[in-house]
Amino acid sequence: MTDTVTAAPRGGGTRAPRRTGALRRGALTASFLAPAMVVLGALVVYPIIYTVIRSFFSPDGEEFVGWQNYVTMFTNETTFTAIRNNLIWVLVAPLACTVLGLIFAVLLEKLRWQTAFKLIIFMPMAISMLAAGVIFRGMFQESPNLGVVNATIVGVNSVFSDSASYPGAKPRPDQGVALNDGIIATESAVRPGSTVVFPLTGVKAAAVPEGAEQAAEARSAAATEVAGTVFLDVVRGGGGVNGEIEAGKTGLPGVRVDAVAPDGSIHGYATTGADGTFSIAGLDGATEYRVALPAANFDAGFQGVSWLSASFINIVVILSYIWIWAGFAMVMIASGLSAIDRSLQEAARVDGASEWKVFSKITVPLLAPVLIVVFITLLINVLKIFDLVYVIPPGTSKPAANVIAVEMWTVSFGGGNNQGLGSALAILLLLLVVPSMIVNARRMRRERSGR
């Protein structure tokens, strides 16, 4: 009896196991991806979809208003200010941080203590944006007594300025001089050859220059002169006679004194010396003059720049951002700098290239991928800047420093209570950020593929 053996179809025995293995691998992959996909959907996809839908509804969410929120957004002056400021941020902040980071990375590489210097520059990254905003707001306060920047500027100005200022000064009553519209002048006109005194009060001790000396009697005036003394009519510790020049009373140097003719014109002037004395020469002996101390002697003088005003607030906020993020750019670029082929630089130097040529023609092109990464990262970051813009500007300057993220928060939660308009602003911000993210993703994909 002959046994008949039937041959199995070619390949049929392995097709089912292969299909089963593929299914198993797919299920395993899905099991690993599922938690991340759930979190991604809950925290990213769902909020985006909900925000898009919410942007078509009224502030309370009860009425469908169509494109009304978008029309309102683009016809609102505050939105235009926010878009303009975001444009300024995009043009200035990322480029400035990237350039500074490149300069720091290249220059600090040649220093002996480069690690310490890099740590100092990177240190602001360890400070929260909120704390950095508080620091910069304090530094740029308008009052020199509070803001270190204006205190420095006023201090430097006082070194190079010869004028003195005595804010708050006023004449001693019943001494023949009076205050009128900020000008302290003699109550009656005097002829040349006379001497006058200006006993003043209300001057703070801190306003008296260090070079001020004991007040002295003016010398006898000539026939074409008017002489006198401007002094602080106060004796430390009390005592003394009002209006009299006595020991312990200080002359006020640097005060301008004018001789004013009856028609109001100034025929001569002088500046008091260290002991407060002055002498106005060249006057007409037949004319009577009123001797006056101009109001400029008693103003507060130069008090710095109003950095937190609407004119300068964007500069201050952008400077604070650069202070924080320049260290991040430096570290990123320094890591790329450590990975480039140094033989190319050495070969260029051997061929006679200057350091600038080596930097601009070799170092920068080799660092181009890193520079692009840093620039795009900072670009995305400044488009959604919020913390610094919200913290640094005082109330009067907030409209001038407004950006889209702050405007979105303000109309939604900061008193506007208009969730529909806030959602429209959020979608606008998303549309501005997405192109940069797409460019960055494509660049990363090209780098992985080696093209």
UniProtKB/TrEMBL annotation:
Residue runs in coiled coils = none
Name the membrane topology term.
Answer: Multi-pass membrane protein
Main location group: membrane
Pfam families xref list:
BPD_transp_1
Q: Which residues form the ABC transmembrane type-1 domain?
A: 83-440
- Matches recorded under Gene3D superfamilies: MetI-like
Q: Which UniProt keywords apply?
A: Cell membrane, Membrane, Transmembrane, Transmembrane helix, Transport
Give the UniProt subcellular location, in the record's own words. Cell membrane
Q: Which InterPro entries match?
A: MetI-like, MetI-like_sf, UgpAE/MalFG_permease
**Regions crossing the membrane:** 27-49, 87-107, 119-140, 312-337, 358-380, 421-441
Q: Which family does it belong to?
A: Belongs to the binding-protein-dependent transport system permease family.
Under what name is this protein listed?
A: Carbohydrate ABC transporter permease
